Amino acid sequence: xxxxxxxLLVLIWASPTLADEVVARIHFQPAGATVPxxxxxxxxxxxxxxxxxxxxxxxxxxxxxGFSPLLATYVSVKNGSTTTWELVLANGDYLVTLVCxxxxxxxxxxxxxxxxxxxxxxETYQGNVxxxxxxxxxxxxxxxxxxxxxxxxxxxxxxxxIVTSTDGTAPPANTPxxxxxxxxxxxxxAPLVVTFTTIAADAEGxxxxxxWTFGDGNTATNLNPTHTYDNAGTYEAKVVVTDEGxxxxxxxxxxxxxxxVVPPTNTPxxxxxxxxxxxxxxxFAVTFTTTADDDEGPxxxxxWTFGDGxxxxxxxxxxxxxxAGTYEAKIVVTDAGxxxxxxxxxxIVNEAGEPPPPPPPPGDGESxxxxxxxxxxxxxxxxxxxxEFLAARGxxxxxxxxxxxxxxxxxALRDTYCFVKNGSPETWELAxxxxxxxVTLVCxxxxxTGKHTVKIEGATVIDTVVTASSEFVEVLKHPVTVNDGxxxxxxxxxxxxxxxxxxxxxxHGTDGSTGGGDPTGEPPTVTAAGSPLTGDAPLTVAFTxxxxxxxxxxxxxxxxxxxxxxxxxxxxxHIYQSPGTYVATVTVAxxxxxxxxxxxxxxxxxxxxxxxxxxxxVTASVETPPVVSVRDAADDPAVWVHPDDPALSVxxxxxxxxGYLFGYDLTGxxxxxxxxxxxxxxVDVRGNLVGCSLSSTLxxxxxxxxxxxxxxxxxxxxxxxxxxAYGFTFYVSPTSGKLYAFVSGRRHDIEQYEIQTNPLSxxxxxxxxxxxxxxxxxxEETGKLFMVEETVxxxxxxxxxxxxxxxTQIGSxxxxxxxxxxxxxxxxxxxxDKGYVIVSDQGPGRYVIFNRTAPYAYxxxxxxxxxxxxxxxxxxxxxxxxxxxxxxxxxxxxxxPFGVFVAQDGSNTKxxxxxxxxxxxxxxxxxxxxxxxxxxxxxxx
Length: 941
Known about the structure:
Blueprint: H1 2-13, E1 21-28, E2 40-42, E3 53-55, E4 60-62, E5 74-77, E6 83-88, E7 92-101, E8 106-113, E9 116-125, E10 128-138, E11 142-147, E12 156-165, E13 178-183, E14 187-189, E15 192-201, E16 207-213, E17 219-220, E18 226-229, E19 233-243, E20 248-258, E21 270-275, E22 279-281, E23 284-293, E24 299-305, E25 311-312, E26 318-321, E27 325-335, E28 340-350, E29 366-370, E30 382-383, E31 395-397, E32 402-405, E33 416-420, E34 426-431, E35 435-445, E36 450-456, E37 459-467, E38 471-482, E39 486-491, E40 500-509, E41 525-531, E42 534-536, E43 539-548, E44 554-560, E45 566-567, E46 573-576, E47 580-590, E48 595-605, E49 616-618, E50 622-623, E51 634-640, E52 650-655, E53 660-664, E54 670-675, E55 680-686, E56 689-694, E57 699-706, E58 711-719, E59 728-732, E60 739-744, E61 750-757, E62 760-768, E63 776-779, E64 784-789, E65 793-798, E66 807-812, E67 822-829, E68 835-841, E69 846-851, E70 858-864, E71 885-888, E72 900-905, E73 916-921, H2 922-929
Parallel strand pairs: 1-2, 14-20, 22-28, 29-30, 42-48, 49-70
Antiparallel strand pairs: 1-12, 3-6, 4-5, 5-12, 6-11, 7-10, 7-12, 8-9, 8-11, 13-15, 15-18, 16-17, 16-19, 19-20, 21-23, 23-26, 24-25, 24-27, 27-28, 29-40, 31-34, 32-33, 33-40, 34-39, 35-38, 35-40, 36-37, 36-39, 41-43, 43-46, 44-45, 44-47, 47-48, 50-73, 51-52, 52-53, 53-54, 55-56, 56-57, 57-58, ...
């Protein structure tokens, strides 16, 4: 009833006599809100002469809806701090009507008009109080209204004001124009074309000018412009219109421009290859092992020419040369952008029974050593991979050092290097005949800065010399005399700063000395056996290598098994998954560095496995907000399980570009974000311990999760030796109970560290030689480490630190099952040796499942989609280009009763936003593919 009476009074009052002239109607609501006809808007802005009204200080503007248009909104002035509002008027006599109050909140109103208090602490609750026809005389050209009370409690709430001239002398006051604008699109990829549609009006006359600013430095003066935004960003487009009296109004539109799908500049791929043997008698069987890599995507094609007219299109082929001769075997790989790279191997085939020619001499009394991975040394150089000194090799380190591969420099001798941390010097030794020598040594890096310290035979030759990227420091022909049978070079030792990076060493004899190595003696002999050598796939073959040396000992065995797998065990066991003919070659080295080889042919029969059915489709039930960075930023997830209430568990994800760890609850809401300048890449969790790789600082970072607050406390960082710390996973040994962390490099190598948390420390216990790979997961029941080489396949190692280099290839890229690139790896546990290994197959945007125990059979494939035929509501978009994944078999409350599968989404498309993470209830996947749903099995319990 009160609201009705107020409205009625307003209607009655708003019909002045002919002698009276309404000169101002001011309504107190935000700019852009719907203003009642005939009213000017006041949004709480400061006084402006152009506007003719405003406040002496900014006020709080609050919008309300659902009430009478005159009472819908208001400006609220805090009591305890009085505020003055002014209106420019011609001098004369006026009646002022003012309405205070609010349709929702309580107020206590104190108001003075032209110095006369008209309201004093008048309290209203969801109602109004009016000052009607208060007479004033203006002599200073301004109507002044003071609001608020320095003592009273609640706020004075202005609704509207009407000013009427009563002496007929005052001309009607000019009221500001009105303007509103819309855009035909408010977001999209650059270049984004936007057309603005604007409505402007003025009660007293015409609009005299229009001024647009688009937020990117460009302007326009027409009412309905079209503008193109060329660059990504968020822009405020603003139009300001001015009436004939000089008063203005403005409206804004926010435009969000994304980076669009702008592919990076394509760079050529890289490729290197080695042969299982470089020479032999005809018919001569050779297996080639190749590493191919492309920074922008997968390798699209492979073309081999073996030099004898035969060809192949697989990455690691086996080929038999039937005729004697010298052949150049060449591989050419092509990336998705059409760029190519090639590598060659020279193969010498002798007539049957003819002994092979002797190897070429190392040079004029020289020995040359290049510090890079096997198979990559320039011609005439021996390779040093950072291993400890071995008599059979004749060179090595006092302790294993960190080895990295780079391919950014045109000088083949400087492509790669070993680097040694300053503060902890390492010694490299060369077994050498006593005599006089000249040593040439080069330090530096084609990419990273360094601070180099080097001693040769105890003499300092490089003393903390700093180099920038692509700069090198050389020691040329440093003279030494060796009288203890070893040349000693000490690397590192500066107390601070960067690392010494060793490129290559040349040792030249000056008194007839050969420059390195013990007397060659007689080469060893080796025989190879295997059982069985034929059978249906999957075929498990037990190999036996028997090496003998008449004048020394056999120091090492290296098996190349013909399907991309290798082993350093003397008697390995291997599973051949697919039908085909494979050549397994064992190479033995004696204590003088001489080698011998033997080969076996394995015939795997059976039908080729049928092509797998199309991937099953599931939908995600939850997605997280987009991460901070654009493009390829989100990476790896892991799940921390709350020890008391699993429904309070936290999904942890990374933004590797912006350098954040994000914590999400199981509804996808962001709980927190933790910044680390080292750029967290991959993350894993064991208990309350959270660990991650730091790609830009070459470290691991560790945090402790607090179950009460569900927040992280940083424990510290630990240096690692791999390049651009990439993949990361924890492993708790089922035999010793010790905690380990595996961390992989951007281009190759995996390091295994034993972790102590009180205090935090890490001890390097093993290094694994691999090609480019990120995804890893360790099985804490079977003691296996699963890892992917992105363009090669899925492999399994022994996860124990004593497990050596032996590995088994489970699936191959290019098969009907795996397309590549392979990224994330995760393990689903179930009792009785059941459960699965799941791999993110990034190219086709799918997830491939294998059994987690030998022979690691293929189980099925699925995709996350928004397709209406998939189970679930389909409220979220699907996933594609997935990097990291994580699966958990434990119940996590009502929404995930059988566990959860979490996947990074590389192209978040509904709407088009930065990358994020999707959560899928495990039962949707399990029911679709007929998989286990075991929520009881936890390794170690």
